[in-house]
Amino acid sequence: MNKSNGNFKNKGIFIFGIVFFICVVAVILAVSFINMSNDYEDSGRNIYFLNSSTNEIVAEKHNIENGSALLSENKKKEYVDAVMREFLKGPKNAGLTAAVPENVSVDCNFKENSDGNGSVQVTFSREYNDLSEGQALVCSSAVRATLREIDFVESIDIIVEGFEESTGETESESSKIAENVKDENLEINPSIAPYKTDNRVVKLYFSDENAMGLVEEERNIEINENQSAERKIVEELIKGPQNESLVAVIPPETKINNINTEGGICYVDVSKDFISHHSGGSTGELLTIYSIVNSLTELDYIKQIQFLIDGVKETSFAGHLDFSKTFERDESRIIKED
């Protein structure tokens, strides 16, 4: 009886030892996995844009959509693409502007080496050739600065669409262009002033303090040749009025994805914060919409505004207005001074 109890006790100790060992191993593996996950955590990455007031390229922290998941799954090409998408969305801070002009498109291709690292080939569209020397330097420097912070990117080659490097001994003009763009010693902030600026007075519309209508506010703004007047106007509207008796009607969290004008229609593509952070109400919606519409249609080449939310045409704005249609200027919304 005692012997049997002793054997049972020994078996119990043995089993307990195995279970304990498995638990220790499991904890070690879990900690390792957590550490590995932390290595892949993408809590914020530097994306570089132009500070037009100082003509410097500066970093702004951006979270990369699905960045941590892409890295943990070793999808490096997809991660590089995601970083470039965030770069091309433009800055969140209204004081910064995109370093790549809106008419220049960018294509990015990551090639992985056997060691897990790799190179990125960035291709600018033909419009890059029309940029001034300063613009081109800022454009390529911002792209390079953004990509070279990715740990597994070892080299970055930048070429221009329509120009190929010469493979022969004779150096062609096109190969010179490609070589200049690919200079690894390119400074982040070149000494050449990148953009000419234009000062102009624009008319912006904000709500009066009683939300009865829109009041005009003239503002002197500076637009560099890398910006469109349309984008600058919406940026100023987001900043809010300088007149303390007026009220901003666009949620400050709103980010501008893209603004372009074709055939008299200005397409304003903004983030979903434009809707999700709006205070609501039919009057509030009207004031917000026509603050933008009436401000933009002060530009004589804009006749209508089409709003997009993250590239999509929504059916309604905060539950009241038909948001799928285009909007025309409405003078009845403006409170005229006596």
What does this protein look like?
The protein is α+β, with helices and mostly antiparallel strands and 338 residues long. Helix content is 33%, strand content 25%. It contains eight helices and 14 strands. It has helices spanning 2-40, 67-72, 76-89, 133-147, 173-181, 229-239, 273-276, 282-296; strands at 45-51, 56-62, 106-112, 118-124, 153-160, 197-208, 214-224, 246-247, 256-262, 265-270, 304-309, 316-317, 321-322, 327-328. Strands 9-10-11-14 form a four-stranded mixed β-sheet. Strand 3 (106-112) and strand 4 form a beta hairpin. Helix 6 (229-239) runs antiparallel to helix 8. The protein starts with a helix and ends in a 10-residue tail after the last strand.
Number of strands: 14
* Oligomeric state of the chains in view: single chain
Number of domains: 3
- Count every helix, treating DSSP H or I runs of 4 or more residues as helices: 8
Task: List low-confidence stretches.
Answer: 31-41, 164-186
The main sheet comes to: 4 strands, mixed
CA(first)-CA(last) distance: 109 Å
Please give the share of residues in helix: 25-40%
Strand order of the largest sheet: 9-10-11-14
List the helices and strands and how they pair.
Elements: H1 2-40, E1 45-51, E2 56-62, H2 67-72, H3 76-89, E3 106-112, E4 118-124, H4 133-147, E5 153-160, H5 173-181, E6 197-208, E7 214-224, H6 229-239, E8 246-247, E9 256-262, E10 265-270, H7 273-276, H8 282-296, E11 304-309, E12 316-317, E13 321-322, E14 327-328
Parallel strand pairs: 4-5, 10-11
Antiparallel strand pairs: 1-2, 3-4, 6-7, 6-8, 9-10, 11-14, 12-13
